[in-house]
Amino acid sequence: MPQISNHMPTAELQALDAAHHMHPFTTNDELTQKGARIITRADGVWLTDSDGNRILDGMAGLWCMNIGYGRSELADVAARQMRELPYYNTFFQTTHVPAIALAQRLAELAPGDLNHVFFAGSGSEANDTNIRMARTYWQIKGQPQKNIIISRWNGYHGSSVGSGSLGGMKGMHAQGGLPIPDIHHINQPDWWSEGGEQSPEEFGLARARELEQAIETLGADRVAAFIAEPVQGAGGVIIPPATYWPEIQRICDDHDILLIADEVICGFGRTGNWFGSQTTGWRPHIMTIAKGLSSGYQPIGGSIVCDEVASVIGGEEFNHGYTYSGHPVAAAVALENLRILDEEGIVTRVAEDTGPHLRAAWESLADHPLVGEAKIIGMMASIALTPDKSARAPFAAEAGTVGYICRERCFANNLVMRHVGDRMIISPPLVISKQEIDTLVERARRSLDETHAALKEQGLMKAGTRD
Ligand SMILES: *Cc1c(COP(=O)(O)O)cnc(C)c1O
């Protein structure tokens, strides 16, 4: 058997992939027919595939490649750390310098008294930690019945049994017996799809008050925590109305509920601050981190925990942890990533320079005949595709049909833009230049034009109704 390498023909690699590799969130039989796109290298914001195409990565991998591809500093740090101490655990009263240094740096970056870090290997694992930590917190305080966690429909918190239960993705709940008990979902603040006749401000308040209604129905003595993304990512880059977060903060304060910010996407500069809860104005007790923490160069996640929760949890043995909690190579790489984000002023640039440039270009798409709203915060953005803007109407075709057509046009135009139903979303590397932003938006517009033409040709411009 010859060694499998980038030099093999694409079709051969695709056949081997189809024979042996089961892909996440994929209909594998369909992919076997079509053949997976094979990415061979990447630099900055650009991917190269096995046919030599140069593709603009509008999604930063999976929302994680904040400092861009090809930073050899991270490779050097990883190699150095592997030679010095490739692995040691943090169980059983031991520690090591990379875990110490990363925890210290995160405590410095996180606002307020979020001073303590519990490490995990991913965002899913970190949210599983949060479920157990929030429930254990109330248990130690003598309220074991205060164990319900409230989250939101169409939120995304990971794909393990626990984190998938927190998430509000119905397709995920339908497989494998989710959700676990004592998770309660409320509606999302998606004004475009669900706001009806209300103004965005009224709707934001109304959706926040669903949390208060749920707490009153369930009983505040039963509710441990509320978890949410500052801005829903995988749900379609849903940016809540400005009235939403202040009201959620008030409700959690009034009812003594822990507030957990899932910062896996919004953290590390994505919204123009270090954390999305800062941009959207609220104060969590726990933050979930992953993705941009290492810019995807190593798998690592964690929970940043406030003084009060950490001190209560610290009173007993917390029977929880992962073999790779605080993995030294991952921690060292994450620390180097944070150094680059900071020293190169990347977060500030998103807030003050490239972010506003992307905003102007992105919002200009709102004049396109297919585009309803065009929304953006920092460097995450979405557009709602619609056959009728003034009615905010969905398409008559099954949700996602049109989004998929548009995504395929983007692929053909060498732009990675994702679709969530009939919303198109981007979340590019934070280091994208203004010129590359212009290229991204040009390609997006071209893809929208081609989608519009295809829809007209296929008779798909018909409006449907919301159920
Ligand atoms: C991706 C994601 C997760 C899960 O992280 P994994 O590393 O894939 O387990 C959790 N929360 C949010 C908001 C995410 O986007």
UniProtKB/TrEMBL annotation:
UniProt keyword Transferase present: yes
Cleaved signal peptide residues: none
Entry annotated with the keyword Manganese: no
Molecular function GO terms recorded: pyridoxal phosphate binding; transaminase activity
InterPro entries recorded: Aminotrans_3 (IPR005814), Aminotrans_3_PPA_site (IPR049704), PyrdxlP-dep_Trfase (IPR015424), PyrdxlP-dep_Trfase_major (IPR015421), PyrdxlP-dep_Trfase_small (IPR015422)
Keyword annotations of the record: Aminotransferase, Pyridoxal phosphate, Transferase
One Pfam match: Aminotran_3
CDD domains xref list: OAT_like (cd00610)
Co-factor requirement: pyridoxal 5'-phosphate
Family: Belongs to the class-III pyridoxal-phosphate-dependent aminotransferase family.
Name by which UniProt lists this protein: Putrescine aminotransferase
Provenance organism: Primorskyibacter flagellatus
